[in-house]
Design a protein that fits this description.
222 residues; mainly beta; two-stranded antiparallel sheet; 67% strand; elongated
Length: 222
């Protein structure tokens, strides 16, 4: 069952758009993975897991306070938790937290990939040049609260709160047919856990985001 209520608005004589959505979702009968040792090879199958509830607020804004200045922003508040939910411990050790059958009781625990708070802010400014061409430098900031990438709170799946910075400057020809952009993504070279997986009773794999990436893009508009 899922419900949403929202509003879309145009403010400041059309210079700003502001949208907001509140959502509530209840999930029943979710499945989860279960590792089975078959002919000395671990295979995964889906089994009943339980329920979860999710609610939150999302807000996004686009504002042009000056002809050449553009500001975008977003905010997300999320509360996603398991209801009655059991998850098998696939590893040979559980730090004494699993029950006698090797299961974790996750009721009331946060769901994976659900930070309580995330925000973004982007600012760009258009600068005119001789001959009608122009450049647009910009900065994009992103912040995320802590989260984990697995249902169970294993220490290796915890991602602390973090922030990233992307930078760019783009040149446009007078007729907008040619563009040249220089950019730096993840300028502060943040390490962020983006996923994880289980391969056996003793092996876990964690994936990370791209490191600092910089480059140049050339464009032609036909």
């Amino acid at each position: 069952d899922s419900y949403e209520i929202g509003v879309k608005s145009t403010l400041l004589d059309g210079d700003m758009t502001l949208n907001a959505t509140y959502y509530q979702a209840d999930y029943k009968g979710l499945t989860t993975s279960f590792l089975v040792l078959f002919n000395n090879v671990f295979t995964s199958t889906s089994v009943p897991g339980g329920d979860m509830e999710s609610s939150g607020l999302e807000v996004d804004m686009v504002w042009q306070p000056l002809d050449n200045l553009k500001v975008t922003a977003g905010l997300s508040l999320d509360n996603s938790e398991f209801g009655k939910f059991r998850k098998q411990n696939p590893y040979t050790e559980d730090n004494g937290l699993a029950d006698a059958d090797g299961y974790f009781d996750l009721q009331g625990e946060d769901t994976p990939f659900s930070p309580d708070l995330s925000m973004n802010l982007g600012v760009s400014y258009q600068i005119g040049l001789e001959g009608g061409s122009y450049i647009v430098p910009g900065i994009f900031l992103y912040y995320s609260d802590e989260y984990r990438t697995t249902s169970v709170d294993y220490f290796w799946s915890r991602q602390d709160s973090y922030s990233t910075v992307d930078l760019s400057v783009k040149w446009y020809s007078a007729d907008d047919r040619y563009t040249v952009q220089a950019y730096v993504n993840n300028a502060t070279d943040e390490d962020v856990i983006t996923g994880s997986d289980t391969y056996s009773g003793a092996r876990a794999v964690v994936d990370y985001n791209d490191p600092r990436v910089w480059g140049v893009r050339l464009g032609y508009n036909f």
